[in-house]
Design brief:
By secondary structure, chain A is of the alpha+beta class. Chain A is 50% helix and 16% strand. Chain A binds a DNA duplex through α2, α3 and β3.
Chain lengths: 118, 118
DNA sequence: CAGCATATACCGATCATCGGCATATACGGC
DNA sequence: GCCGTATATGCCGATGATCGGTATATGCTG
């Protein structure tokens, strides 16, 4: 299971999954709930999206299995960020901040006649 | 050409196209260059991506044709943000800031044993 | 005249996400 | 006892934005 070489742009659900695992390891279902809480219910990850994302992030080396527990005869597989995942998430947050700040700046200079924009 | 009702999550190239048009109207090719400059060459929009995005954003009512010019016998079609587009971009920037801040906050509380996270 | 920049536009392929379904167990209400 | 919901993982087909390439022109430069 070699890590993929592509540095494809990260979509929102994937970013939120990494965010959910940033502070502490969590199992899949807990991630779904956490993402819903984080986004005030706006993003409700489908099971298909979540487990596909976990597999992909794992094969990319951004997360790894932390441990497995059985609670009430149900399996809980906990995932945690790897060092690489931590760096990637930090890079993503920096990028988001930069782009958001730039967009805000441009929105402010909007409709200012005869004014050049950077 | 009815505006689509879906409020689908916005991807990075689309966000950057809106950002490019936020301050002043620009034609397609200028948007490609602007996005490349904004992202320090990281994002180089393909023609297919750009014009498809412009069509989609137009049918969604987020942008509209500003004017057309012919320079050196080549057509330049300028697009501008609509009021709806401006609101949407502002909402997107707010969302990006919130998510980036949240992710940073979680990265900071990382690996702090026995500590609950919000 | 070959190559590159400008400028718009179409096309098939890729792939993350969506939406739904399957499989189990536990719990609460009726 | 049964139904619906919550918990928990997983598979599968469809969707759609993006990618990569090509087409079509013109102008400029080497």
């Amino acid at each position: 299971m070699l890590p993929r070489m592509t540095e494809a742009p990260m979509r929102e659900p994937t970013f939120l999954v990494l965010t959910a695992l940033a502070a502490t390891p969590q199992h899949g279902y807990a991630v779904i709930e956490d993402v819903a809480r984080m986004t005030d219910g706006r993003v409700r990850l489908r099971a298909g999206t979540l487990y596909a994302a976990l597999d992909r992030l794992r094969s990319d080396g951004l997360i790894e299995v932390d441990r497995e527990e059985v609670v009430q005869s149900r399996l809980r597989r906990y995932y945690r960020l790897t060092g690489v995942g931590e760096q990637r998430l930090a890079a993503e947050t920096a990028r988001l901040h930069r782009q958001a700040t730039l967009a805000e700046s441009r929105l402010r200079t909007r409709r200012t006649p005869g004014e050049a924009f950077s």
